[in-house]
Design a protein that fits this description.
The chain is an alpha+beta fold. It contains eleven helices and 17 strands. Helix 6 packs antiparallel against helix 8.
Amino acid sequence: MAYTPILDAVLSTWSTARFATFANVMDRASESDKGRAPHVAFETVWVSDGHPFDHLGAAEVLAAERRSVGDVEILKLADDEGPWQVVALPTVHDGVFHLASGVPTTHARWKKVVRWVASARDVSRCFLDHRDFRAFGHQLQQFGEVEVVTATGRSTRDQSSLFRGFPPVTGSLRPRPEEVVEEFERNSAYVRSWVLRVGDELNFHLRRVAGATFYSGRYRLFEDQVLAPLAEAAAARRALLTGRQRRRSVPVVPLSVVLAEDVFNSREDTGLLVDLAQGMTDMSMAVFHRNPYLHFVLTDEGDGSNFDVMVTVPDVVNVYPGFRASPASLARVTGRIAEAFGAIRIEQAEPRPKVSLTDLVEA
């Protein structure tokens, strides 16, 4: 997809033109291109404190200038190809933002933004599960027939990539979102992204690592029905991972990374998790036990967070926070595991009942 600087040109005038919202920016950009709305890529992130731009290290650019327009922040960047911009749009949820740019996700510039987010210690991403993907399809039905144009995924068996394309056929619709999710699940795979078309109202790309690209249609519908749910998902993840550090005299409740099927059935299988953990940047690792269950400790060299990671059943990885467990560090650990092994959800584990002396005697 080619990059056109239409959105960047309008963003450059935001301070003087006094647009009320980003939707008004989109309106002006559309007017400037004969009614064609620009494609816009979004990445939904959350922070525990401050602003995402406080933590992003804008590397690989010649210049970076940050400015504010009300509660919106704009990062004007320059590289060998010229200027471009990234916008941070606050949401109704504390600490949750949409990073937006008119640069396509396939462009080297957007890939830089992704690297900045991935390496920023205090900027976190969240992933969508199949429940979220189904919800998008169901909710959008009220605005028109919802069709899957393309879908990508990954096999939970061998980690191979999958692609499904559905060209239009006269007189019939493409598959519905529910049908595609069911197909992937039958093949032991999970959806990583898809392009949805909602009648003549909306066309967009949704990514499992929470983000979306607006292609065409009604932008305000996209805001309400795509960006708002992404912000809710990020806010829920932020709440789940905040305040999880261990406390004395309080039972430790782990976070469970629940997988779609039995993955860890042997020492070789759990070895894949060990390899993943060893490859995590700025993390040190100590393995306590390998067989029949897996238990290792991760320590974040950057902020001192530490976690016990255990596998005692084939389809769940339990992460026990230590006495220091920052939300950002916990997000990195659980997110990497979830993405690598096709988690269907991350949740607080059910508390185990206390074992009495009678139970031990009678066992």
